[in-house]
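R.M. (postdoc): so does anyone remember the format we settled on? I'll just put the structure tokens first.
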């Protein structure tokens, strides 16, 4: 299996509750490496752009509001099969459906405040990494 990179966000609900370390530990325990990381406060415009794919969904306004309400931690994770592996570590979008041991099962508050974002495919991973990081911020 090839070494991949994926994009991850520790969302405002988790940063607010001081869960950065516990969430990063989950990635590291599963063999993913943090090759870039920064804490930022997304502007409303950034959140709108990042989630533009969901523009027509009924929860879009709430999602943009929530993601720009307070700081997040954006990261690039690297490892074997990183995109799918990260999705497994995160668990289902709705924490009620997330498996035991996943980040969302342990930490998410609701389907909206679900603690983490992770890319869902190679194309979106590349796009999302480029949205937040320059090449020289990624140190493999
Ligand atoms: P994921 O984050 O698991 O990739 P998604 O891409 O379908 O899920 O949705 C993006 C985010 O939008 C999700 O993490 C939380 C929010 N969201 C999705 N479905 C929702 C819903 N039914 N109600 C409220 N927020 C929702
Ligand atoms: Mg998604």
């Amino acid at each position: 299996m090839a070494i991949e990179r994926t994009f991850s966000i520790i969302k405002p609900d988790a940063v607010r509750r001081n869960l950065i370390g516990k969430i990063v530990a989950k990635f590291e325990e599963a063999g993913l490496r943090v090759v870039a990381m920064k804490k930022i406060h997304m502007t409303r415009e950034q959140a709108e752009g990042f989630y533009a794919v969901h523009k027509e969904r009924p929860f879009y306004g709430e999602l943009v509001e929530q993601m720009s309400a307070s700081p997040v931690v954006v990261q690039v994770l690297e490892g074997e099969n990183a995109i799918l592996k990260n999705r497994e570590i995160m668990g289902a979008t709705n924490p009620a459906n997330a498996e035991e041991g996943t980040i969302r099962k342990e930490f998410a508050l609701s389907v909206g405040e679900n603690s983490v974002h992770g890319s869902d495919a190679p194309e979106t991973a590349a796009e999302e990494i480029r949205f937040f990081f320059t090449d020289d911020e990624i140190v493999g």
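R.M.: ...and that's the designed sequence above, right after the tokens. Also worth knowing: Residues 120 surround magnesium ion (ligand 2) (CB under 6 Å). Strands lie at 3-10, 33-40, 72-80, 116-118.
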